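User: Design a sequence. Structure:
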């Protein structure tokens, strides 16, 4: 019986700027300084065993945690964040529970070009499939040999299968949830609006959280406020506008209402120009009229006190 062919490779390239990669820095920010060690361990397992992917399950998570000397929860957190930022492909993880990426597969193909079989499972492939390349070693084979005229395949005959890129933000991602919430609030105000690109909106939510340092709670509160405000509800019709106007709306939202600055003095009725005394106050009784008439007589005769 022939010995099973080892799919993995003996080494893999690690960029000197590995820690400067924006994706790696995001993972470190979210998961701590141990994240790069966990990632390198994951990549080592991928390239060593299958060469371009790794099945992700509870046993694998335990083994990686044991190798690194950390908790399984920490490993799982790094994997989740790595999928979110695009280090590993979201679509293939959701469908097959594997960890891989376009870059991993490209590096594997380059490193394993002399192997007897360097092919990639079509279901897992994220690179363009060239059916002339069946992963045969270039040893003694002119088809794949560098410089061979037979290696030039007519592009019109090459069947290239383009894989649909999976969304960057899954439905359960906090950024996508925030984008979807904003859209539903806007839709309730303007039912005829067409649905936007929620992936772009989700990216704006991510920028608000990561670059502008706004919590998802504050973002949700602002969405509630601006979509109910008479002026802003007609102006904040996208996640981009929400981000641009966030500071202005925050200041306005915190501004005290005019009625709360001081006590509102109510003008008395008698001070109004059109005020008329009640009818009962305008009438004079007969007795009062007699007293008034007597007083007037006294004044005429000089017996009354002068009125000052």
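Assistant: Done.
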């Amino acid at each position: 019986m022939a010995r099973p062919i080892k799919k993995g490779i003996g080494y893999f390239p690690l960029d000197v700027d590995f820690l400067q990669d924006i994706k790696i820095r995001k993972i470190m920010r979210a998961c701590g300084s141990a994240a790069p060690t966990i990632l390198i361990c994951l990549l080592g397992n991928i390239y060593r065993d299958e060469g371009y992917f790794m099945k992700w399950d509870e046993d694998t998570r335990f083994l990686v945690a044991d190798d690194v000397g950390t908790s399984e929860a920490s490993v799982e957190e790094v994997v989740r964040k790595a999928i979110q930022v695009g280090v590993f492909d979201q679509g293939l993880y959701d469908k097959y529970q594997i960890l891989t990426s376009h870059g991993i597969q490209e590096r594997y193909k380059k490193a394993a070009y002399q192997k007897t079989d360097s092919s990639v499972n079509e279901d897992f492939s994220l690179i363009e499939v060239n059916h002339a390349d069946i992963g045969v070693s270039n040893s003694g084979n002119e088809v794949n040999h560098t410089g061979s005229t037979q290696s030039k395949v007519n592009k019109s005959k090459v069947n290239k299968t383009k894989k649909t890129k999976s969304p960057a933000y899954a439905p359960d991602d906090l950024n996508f949830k925030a984008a979807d919430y904003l859209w539903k609030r806007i839709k309730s105000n303007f039912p005829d609006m067409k649905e936007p690109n929620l992936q772009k909106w989700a990216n704006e939510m991510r920028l608000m959280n990561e670059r502008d340092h706004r919590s998802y709670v504050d973002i949700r509160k602002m969405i509630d406020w601006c979509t109910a405000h008479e002026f802003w509800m007609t102006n904040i019709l996208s996640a981009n506008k929400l981000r641009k106007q966030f500071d202005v709306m925050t200041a306005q939202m915190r501004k005290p209402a005019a009625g709360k600055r001081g006590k509102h003095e109510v003008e008395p009725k008698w001070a109004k120009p059109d005020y008329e005394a009640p009818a009962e106050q305008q009438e004079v009784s007969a007795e009062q009229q007699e007293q008034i008439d007597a007083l007037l007589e006294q004044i005429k005769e000089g017996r009354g006190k002068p009125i000052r």
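The mean pLDDT is 79. The longest helix spans residues 174-189.
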